[in-house]
Amino acid sequence: MDLMIAAAAVFLVGLGIAALGLVEDDLYVVGLLIMLIGMIGVLVRVTDWFSAGASGLGRRAPR
Q1: Residues 6 or more apart from 22 whose CB is under 8 A from it?
Q2: CB atoms within 10 A of CB 13
Q3: At 28, is the secondary structure helix, strand, or coil?
Q4: Could you give the maximum distance between any two Cα atoms of the chain, in Å?
Q5: Side-chain half-sphere exposure of 25, counting CA atoms within 13 A
Q6: 3-state secondary structure of 33
Q7: How far is CA 3 from CA 17, 38, 63, in A?
Q8: Cα(52)–Cα(55) distance, rounded to whole angstroms?
Q9: What is the rounded distance in angstroms from the CA atom of residue 24 to the CA atom of residue 18?
């Protein structure tokens, strides 16, 4: 669950940087790219969560 929170935090940081795009145009593009990275992270975590639930035992990453 910690990785899901981290991915959501990346998305929120990107949203904040995109909001600064009102001041500087380049920040808008940078914010959109960071939001894209955050959305991919959330999608990966949700997909992993669904696949772990479907298999019953779940799959854990090595630490």
Answers
A1: 28
A2: 15
A3: helix
A4: 49
A5: 0
A6: helix
A7: 21, 11, 13
A8: 5
A9: 9
**Helix or strand or coil: residue 43?**
helix
Alpha helices (runs of H) in 1-63, residue ranges in sequence order: 2-19, 25-55
User: Per-residue pLDDT tens for 7-61?
Assistant: 889 989 999 998 888 888 888 889 889 999 999 988 988 888 888 765 555 556 5
| Domain spans in the chain, listed from the N-terminal domain onward | 2-50
CA distance 37 to 6: 12
Q: Encoding tokens for residue 52?
A: 């772990």
CA 17 to chain centre: 15
Angle between helices 2-19 and 25-55 (to 10 degrees): 160
